[in-house]
């Protein structure tokens, strides 16, 4: 069965069910109203008999009062009064004769004995029990249908005449259920016919409307299929079977599924492209801003805040949507230069500007036309800001990386070539030592001492070669997300005793919120340990050392500041070279290894130092940056913030 047919049948079936329920409610309400009307009409008849009975009793008792004051004399006098008053009997017979639902009318005493009745056989006989008609109208619809249209029975309506608050005489009107059935059947049949016609009409209307409502799906299906064929190379005969090719609803459903799949694929590609673009912009040191034709920022990189002098924790995404004049203040040097370049409307290539704090900045403007023939200014504008100091630092880092790479390639070959001769020389020295012991030391004039010296030097040379091999060996990273504060805390515990022994006081300044980075914790601890030990060795008389952690936009920054002797300016470019050291007992490997570890983690390292003994800023500051880990939940950050901050304070 086609899906369209199923939908039409479902709509018509639901409509039929609703109409059927409404029809049942309509018929039941009509039946309830008719029963109420019958009860009210017969109640009027009961009161009419009751009034006539009371009048007859009063008239008869005045004409023939009781012989004494006993109950028996009163009962006899009342019975004579009822039976000798033709007006009461006439009223009772008239009701039975002309009422379509009344079967009999009777008057009974309090004990249920019939005193007067339209049925002669019932006089002086106990009254038969009957159900109350008033109770029928308060019953359920099923009960009413059962009484009216079920087994024939007589229903009773009664009214009592009280004496001293106690029933004395009771008037009964008997209503036969068969009479009710005969009275109700004509209008009930009409109501059922009306409900059936209404149900049939509503079903036909529902089917017609459902068919008309689904007809526009043909046009929608055709349009959707044209859209999917534009981006989908799958033939239509492979997408639809022969049995469902003519089913409009199935075709629309499948076409929407294909459109949804295409949209999800394009959205996934767009999301990945946007994530890559954001990551690329966040890692750039150059500030990049893209402005629309009306000079509103459509894209802002993370580094723009550095050029604007904004706080480090300010969200650069707030600048998106702002106008050019709102981002760049006209009273600043950079703002005035950028606004002037925009006003001229041309291209700007590497225009230099000196900021108020002395920084050298270059900015470039690249016009991107929209291709619609609008002319200059009708498209977007790309503004690039570049810090010349950062360019110089980047060049220096590239040079150091180049040197370390060359050293690594050299040491890899040297270590392999030198290791084998060293092993052979050590072996022959051991053989020579054995022969000297066999022939006696005196025979060779103290040659044993020279052999020992040679053996010691050979071992030292072997250690040097092994160090070269370890430095050039590829490192295997085990990257995990860690809180950088915890990594620093572990290093503080490792160096606490040695720092105290050398009279060095270390102070850690860490933020309250976590600094999540994706690193190899052991290698990062080794890098920090090298920096701390280097600072401690630079203060032979002791002093203070500060380890400062902070977040700079999308980077986690660690600064190790000592009060040591400092590094002369001419030696700063060489401190990361392998085996270069200014300490008598230094190996020249620690800083080179630290630099290499940071490179493997995608980080960067800087150093500032002053060797002037009269300067208050004497000492060295090592600064390294690591990318902040992405996808870290805020709830996890908040949960660990207070605990880690407390641990750092206790460790220091």
- Please count the helical segments: 18
Extract low-pLDDT stretches: 233-244, 632-652
Globally, the shape reads elongated
- How much helix, percentage-wise, in residues? 40-55%
Taking the sheet with the most strands, its summary is: 5 strands, mixed
**Gap from first CA to last CA:** 78 Å
Major sheet: arrangement of strands:
2-1-5-4-3
Number of strands: 17
Structural class: alpha+beta
Give the SSE layout.
Layout lengths: L2 H61 L7 H13 L2 H13 L3 E7 L5 E4 L13 E2 H5 L3 H9 L4 E10 L2 E11 H38 L1 H16 L4 H4 L8 H36 L3 E5 L5 E4 L3 H5 L15 H4 L5 H12 L3 E7 L5 E9 L11 E8 H52 L7 H26 L7 E4 H18 L2 E6 L6 E4 L1 H17 L5 E10 L2 E8 L27 H11 L3 E7 L8 E9 L6 H18 L1
Parallel strand pairs: 3-4, 12-14
Antiparallel strand pairs: 1-2, 1-5, 4-5, 6-7, 6-10, 8-9, 9-10, 11-13, 14-15, 15-17, 16-17
Helix pairs in contact: 1-2, 1-3, 1-6, 7-9, 13-14, 15-16, 15-18, 16-17
Question: Overview of this structure, please?
Answer:
There is one protein chain. By secondary structure, the chain is of the alpha+beta class. It folds into five domains: 3-202, no CATH class; 218-275; 276-387, Beta-Lactamase; 393-472, Helix Hairpins (Orthogonal Bundle), CATH 1.10.287; 480-651, Histidine kinase-like ATPase, C-terminal domain (Heat Shock Protein 90), CATH 3.30.565.10. Helix content is 55%, strand content 18%. It has 18 helices and 17 strands. The chain has helices at 3-63, 71-83, 86-98, 133-137, 141-149, 177-214, 216-231, 236-239, 248-283, 304-308, 324-327, 333-344, 388-439, 447-472, 484-501, 521-537, 590-600, 634-651; strands spanning 102-108, 114-117, 131-132, 154-163, 166-176, 287-291, 297-300, 348-354, 360-368, 380-387, 480-483, 504-509, 516-519, 543-552, 555-562, 604-610, 619-627. Strands 2-1-5-4-3 form a five-stranded mixed beta sheet. It has a five-stranded antiparallel beta sheet with strand order 7-6-10-9-8. Strands 12-14-15-17-16 form a five-stranded mixed beta sheet, covered by helices on one side. The longest helix is centred in the N-terminal third of the chain and has 61 residues, at 3-63. The relative contact order is 0.05. The model is unreliable at 233-244 and 632-652 (pLDDT under 50).
């Amino acid at each position: 069965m086609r899906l369209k047919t199923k939908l039409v049948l479902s709509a018509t079936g639901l409509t039929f069910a609703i109409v059927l329920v409404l029809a049942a409610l309509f018929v039941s309400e009509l039946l309830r109203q008719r029963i109420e009307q019958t009860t009210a009409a017969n109640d009027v008849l009961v009161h009419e008999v009751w009034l006539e009975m009371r009048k007859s009793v009063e008239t008869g008792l005045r004409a023939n009062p009781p012989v004494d004051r006993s109950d028996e004399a009163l009962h006899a006098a009342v019975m004579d009064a009822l039976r000798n008053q033709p007006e009461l009997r006439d009223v009772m017979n008239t009701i039975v004769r002309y009422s379509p639902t009344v079967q009999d009318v009777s008057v009974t005493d309090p004990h249920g004995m019939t005193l007067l009745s339209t049925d002669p056989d019932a006089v002086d006989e106990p009254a038969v029990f009957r159900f109350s008609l008033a109770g029928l109208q308060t019953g359920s619809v099923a009960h009413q249908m059962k009484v009216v249209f079920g087994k024939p029975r007589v229903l009773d309506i009664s009214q009592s005449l009280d004496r001293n608050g106690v029933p004395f005489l009771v008037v009964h009107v008997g209503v036969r259920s068969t009479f009710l059935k005969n009275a109700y059947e004509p209008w009930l049949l009409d109501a059922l016919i009306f409900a059936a016609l209404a149900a049939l009409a509503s079903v036909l209307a529902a089917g017609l409307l459902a068919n008309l409502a689904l007809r526009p799906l043909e046009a929608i299906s055709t349009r959707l299929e044209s859209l999917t064929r534009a981006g989908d190379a799958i033939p239509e005969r492979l997408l639809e079977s022969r049995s469902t090719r003519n089913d409009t609803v199935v075709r629309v459903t499948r076409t929407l599924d294909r459109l949804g799949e295409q949209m999800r694929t394009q959205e996934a590609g767009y999301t990945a492209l946007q994530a890559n673009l954001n990551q690329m912009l966040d890692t750039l040191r150059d500030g990049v801003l893209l402005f629309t034709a009306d000079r509103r920022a459509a894209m802002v990189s993370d580094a723009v805040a550095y050029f604007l002098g904004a706080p480090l924790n300010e969200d650069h995404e707030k600048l998106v949507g702002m106008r050019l004049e709102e981002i760049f203040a006209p009273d600043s040097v950079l703002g005035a230069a950028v606004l002037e370049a925009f006003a001229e409307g041309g291209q700007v290539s590497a225009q230099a500007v000196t900021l108020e704090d002395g920084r050298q900045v270059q900015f470039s403007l690249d016009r991107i036309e929209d291709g619609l023939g609008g002319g200059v200014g009708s498209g977007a504008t790309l503004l690039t800001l570049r810090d010349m100091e950062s360019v110089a630092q980047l060049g220096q880092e590239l040079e150091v990386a180049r040197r370390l790479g060359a050293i690594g390639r050299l040491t890899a070959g040297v270590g392999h070539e030198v290791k084998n001769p060293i092993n052979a020389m050590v072996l022959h020295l051991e053989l020579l030592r054995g022969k000297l012991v066999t022939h006696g030391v005196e025979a060779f004039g103290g040659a044993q001492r020279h052999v020992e010296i040679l053996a010691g030097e050979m071992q030292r040379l072997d250690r040097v070669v092994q160090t070269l091999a370890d430095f050039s060996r590829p490192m295997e990273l085990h990257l995990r997300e860690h809180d950088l504060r915890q990594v620093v805390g572990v290093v503080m515990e490792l160096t606490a005793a040695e720092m105290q022994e050398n009279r060095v006081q270390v102070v850690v300044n860490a933020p309250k919120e976590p600094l999540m980075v994706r690193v190899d914790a052991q290698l990062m601890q080794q890098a920090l340990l090298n920096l701390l030990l280097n600072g401690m060795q630079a203060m032979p008389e002791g002093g203070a050392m500060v380890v400062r952690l902070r977040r700079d936009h999308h980077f986690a920054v660690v600064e190790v500041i000592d009060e040591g002797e400092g590094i002369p300016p001419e030696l700063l470019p060489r401190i990361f070279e392998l085996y270069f050291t200014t300490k008598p007992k230094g190996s020249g490997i620690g800083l080179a290894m630290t630099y290499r570890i940071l490179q493997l983690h995608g980080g960067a390292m800087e150093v500032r130092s002053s060797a002037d003994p009269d300067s208050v800023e004497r000492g060295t500051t090592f600064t390294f940056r690591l990318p902040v880990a992405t996808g870290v939940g805020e709830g996890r950050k908040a949960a660990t913030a207070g605990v880690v901050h407390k641990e750092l304070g206790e460790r220091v």
